[in-house]
Design a protein that fits this description.
This protein has about 600 residues and is α/β, with parallel strands linked by helices. The protein contains 20 helices and twelve strands. A hairpin with a 2-residue loop joins strand 11 and strand 12. The relative contact order is 0.08.
Amino acid sequence: MIKTLAKYIGEFKIPSILTPICMIVEVIMEMITPLLMASIVDKGVEAGNIGHIYKMGLYMVIAAAIGLIGGLVGANLAAKASAGFARNLRKAMFDNIQTFSFANIDKFSTAGLVTRLTTDVTNIQNAYQMILRMCMRAPSSLIIALSMTFFINARIASIYLIAVLFLALVMAIIVMTAMKYFRQVFKKYDELNESVQENVTGIRVVKAFVREDYEESRFARASENIYKMFVKAESAVVINFPVMNFTVYACILVISWIGAHMIVSNTLTTGELMSLLTYCMNILISLAMLSMIFVMVTMSAASAERIAEVINEEATISNPENPVYEIEDGSIEFKDVYFRYNLTSKEPVLTDIDLKIESGETIGILGGTGSAKTSLVNLISRLYDVNGGEVLVGGKNVKEYDLETLRNEVSVVLQKNVLFSGTILDNLRWGDENATLEDCKRVCRMASADEFIDKMPDGYETKIEQGGNNVSGGQKQRLCIARALLKKPKILILDDSTSAVDTATDAKIRKAFAEEIPNTTKIIIAQRISSVQNADRIVVMDNGRISGVGTHEELLATNEIYKDVYESQTGGAGDFDSPDGDSSKGGEQ
């Protein structure tokens, strides 16, 4: 874990090295001051030597100035190094997340990744800054102060040594106790972020169903869990401070009592006792710093593990050693394909899939919820990899292709249509960042999106809110289809992507596809038979298997599932999943 994170210090190694050096300079100057004070008392005040007082006073001013400069420079360098380290960690996590396959993304929740990129990295940033400054300052101050006390009087210094060893043992016990709670608390943060995320993204649904009270109670529970875990962790940590204060002040009392007797017996001077008490306060401050470090490091250790987990996660799907960068055509073939999302699950999601699709064909895919229609098409662009058999595109196994090349040539409009903040043009150019306005207008005409864009006051410069909340479901679907067309793919997959548009618009889109992109292989997943009725072939899925393949007429004659659905829909009953006739409810995992 430490090795993983340490390499992201990167260009901030020099500030990270210079900061402890500056802290040591500051500590040395602080440790010299009590000796100078003792000299002023013993050789200046008691001896009546005003010249010696001035001389030692000047040395104290110089030492204070050097210590101040060291502290200021060290603080600045520590801030720069810690902020840069945090930046590098965020970038490393974000960059690695971009390489994740869907299987990797399924492993981490969205809320969990947000927590790791924000709260966890902030914890590491604070801990690293404290480590650079305090981890060098506190131990060096403690060691030098103890050394000085032994230099002044070994008998009294042994009291400090016993106290320090006792406090070190107490700290170790506290850290081990608190650590288990801090590991758990960040999982609770994930739950809290998940509650906030779902509430904000689904705020319209929350208000529509008047579920504000439910969401408030859900958030309160998540917040209460964090509160309880922090109370347990902090309850263990705070024991450290009263124990430390008791020990140090007990030392002061013992040293004062012993020192007074030694002064009377002329084995210790007043200035030396004063220095010993000053060093006692230095030791107290150093121990307080060490306590803060232990608390921060204990908290950040759990965060460090979570960050390292994301950075070290290897994508389950990656480029082959010598990838193919050109796809010959849009032909697709499934050869004895088996697939499961979880390798430990008993039953595969897809079983014994054999299907060959010629380049330029229009293929319809029908099936009820859970029949694995989406799972089937996700294998074509390697959003997931098969567990058995193989998927071929352009005559080659998809695992042989460069991922970027494959996904540029296999354009997918997913079930959950996502638009991003920005203008309509910005969203369209996700398909081709160099596309001209005319290119964008052309694909919008094909997707029947121009009908509503032209009616907007700002046209293609209309601002899209986060998630596309200021456009309807049907408008969002048409924009996503246009965006996919802008890639000029060899294969176009529409995963129930016209469910929110009316049948007339659906027909116009299908007609445009037939006329404008005849050589593109088109796979259309739909709930309405009317959406795929004119396809070259229709694939009927049932419980992860292919129930039938053929034209509309062939399936009516040979496939009972297709025939039943056709009769129910033409009779006004609805689609696969909506016997009440509401065809907009179609969807599938």
